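chain below, 558 aa
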Amino acid sequence: MDHCIQPLPDQVIKQIAAGEVIASSASVIKELVENALDANATRITITMNAELSSLQVADNGEGMSLEDLRHCAYAHTTSKIRSTSDLQKIVTLGFRGEALHSMTQIASLQVRSRPHYPTSETGYEMSYSRGGEVISEKTIAIAPGTIVTVSDLFADFPARRHALPKKSQQLKAIQKTIYEIAMAHPDLTWQVYHDDRLWLHLSPVETPQQLLPQILSQFQTSDFQYVSKEIKTPDQEGQSRLELLLGLPDRASRHQRDWLKTAVNGRCVRLPEIEQTLVSGLMKTLPRDRYPICWLHLHTHPHLIDWNRHPAKTEIYLCHLKHWQEQVQNAIKDALQLNSNSVPEIVHNRRVGELLKAAEAKGDYQVTATEEEKGELSLFPLRAIAQLHQTYIVAEHPTGVWLIEQHIAHERIIYEQLQAQWELVSHDPPLILDDLSLSQQEQLERLGLEIDRFGEATWAIRTVPKILQPRSDIQDAILELSSGGDLATAQVATACRSAIRNGTPLNPQEMQDILDQWKQTRHPHTCPHGRPIYLSLTETSLAKFFRRHWVIGKSHGI
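prediction:
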């Protein structure tokens, strides 16, 4: 162990954004788990009694020496910083030296530990008084690591104990805490017991993409796209790194905004500006009332972060914020591009399998599903070969057949063109509209249209979106734009009205043009309303359905 636990100097204590850190059972677990991670633990076991009044966190980390155990529960004692300058380069999850001392104020605290280095054959068990003094000390047999037990939580504070949320809400908060820490450290093994039963288990993996399906079991790894990229930070030597895990909008989303999370250097934090960048980057890719699943983890130089902003360390100051926002926008663009990772064969085999099962249920026989085969799906070339019901473009691909819904694919193309250039042109003669309300007038002005009073209860519209000008229903389109919403909403409405209608016959070149343009869009998975645009029917699915693996002679009993 490189450092021992020591009291902080007064001048350092005065610089710390201090505050009581223990407000609930979840905060007890958070502080103890962060200490375990700072001790380089790879396995964490949490045990909770039925009423959540007794909590224990065991880890296989570096452990503590006898001298450290004697000092660890005093106020402002820590091994992680020594001077005021250390506050500008925090590399650990904990640093204030308050957590264990705060626990002694509201509960009974016992710590058992055995250090890995220097090698020790015995461990020690300490119990602490309310002020952090050791009240009992003994030698015990224990594996290397640390076990911290907090019991009788808030027993001497009945008002606070009665003010705690319901047990189910406390468990939900504990679960949320564990999930957030686990996502930032996916290589950990977690075992959590509640009332002597295994309540939660997470296996170690290499990336958050492999971990999230363990947390959100209704999704699969292929429902997410993972981007990890090295980034040059302005005015700094060396590289920073950005990790983005994004639920593909046609497969993975939520009814509430509970899985849009940001982390910095191993800790989940609130970064409102970055979160808004994520939301803006994913606008018009999801259906109404659905929210993205998104995990963003920034790894950067410690001196570019001020962790000392908030007692709970959930709010920070991050240098070069605009630079990070630009990098996040680029990462979202990369994640939503069509490629062999974002459209794996197995995903669409599963979808097609569901369609085939539905069809077979009405037929005379059943097909027994076999294990799906994994494979790469190269997206190019994609060649239009037919139009189905004047609604779907049938496209040939080396691995099978794709169905692309022509209206919403074209809608996505036009919407992104309008985003890039919202062009208004003069309309001569002016378009005359009657009985516009004040809010409709103001809405058209906000969108940049030139509007003048033309008489009593009559208005002249002198400029219109260029894409709408040749349409015969332009008057209805302008009235639709006047109904409200921001510019993006207006662009969606314009794109929807301007896109090729289902029922419109297309020749092969027109279909191919739509495919070529659609493949180049930034968000090709869904239309601006959030509807999926395409479905792939791969060769492996066709082979399974038609049983091409059968030997024909044997199938006839020969």
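Residues 167-184 form the longest helix (18 residues). The CA atoms of residues 347 and 401 lie 14 Å apart.
thats it, cya
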